[in-house]
Amino acid sequence: MIRPVFEPESLPIESTGADLPPVDPARLTPEGLRARFAQRLPWDPEPQEARKADIRDPREAAVLVPLVVRAAGLSVMLTQRADNLSNHAGQVSFPGGSREPADATPAAAALREAQEEVDLDPARVEVLGALPDYLTGTGFRVTPVIGLVHEPFTVTADSLEVASIFEVPLAFLMNPANHEVRVFRWEGGERRFFAMPYPQQGAAVGADHFIWGATAGMLRNFYRFLRA
């Protein structure tokens, strides 16, 4: 079934995660994250955008979830994709893309793509591990690779793929009160998705970085993982 085009920012908020428990602040540190990835604790990922039965031959992809180590705390590096791209144009996303034959692992693909898209030196990234694959409605099976980005480093957007680069505090994204569930209904179906709008610094009220879809879904899984 073909899903119609819609404007996610304009859709109503059905619920938030304000009633859910917060993540222990000690886990939102480099030491806490290293300890969590060293553990094998059971946890339940959120339902995915698509079912395996809907996507018979998904394309393998990987994204880097870059957790920047700052004096004020960890922040998540995100990109605003260029408007000319064929997939997810204009959306907020992690650096990443399709896995190529030369990529030995999903982590290798994520690091390569991050270097290509934002010129992030792989040597500045400490890979911690990965979350479960995320199947998107556009036909990708995405492996989210979590990594700490250590200073000093610089980033520069590849203008063909990335319109801008920005950071959001990890504490904001791991606060379930900031996790919205929005719903889109049309004749023949409905779709629910997570959204995590983050105010742009210096911009007018309501001018948010609108984090939604697969990116927000993977961040929600990260919350579930850290809460286990």
From TrEMBL:
One of its GO terms (molecular function) is coenzyme A diphosphatase activity. Residues 58-189 form the Nudix hydrolase domain. This is CoA pyrophosphatase. SUPFAM superfamilies: Nudix. The lineage of its organism: Bacteria, Pseudomonadati, Pseudomonadota, Betaproteobacteria, Burkholderiales. Residues 1-28 are annotated as: Disordered. Keywords: Hydrolase, Magnesium, Manganese, Metal-binding. PANTHER family: MITOCHONDRIAL COENZYME A DIPHOSPHATASE NUDT8, NUDIX HYDROLASE. It comes from Paraburkholderia acidisoli. Its cofactor is Mn(2+); Mg(2+).
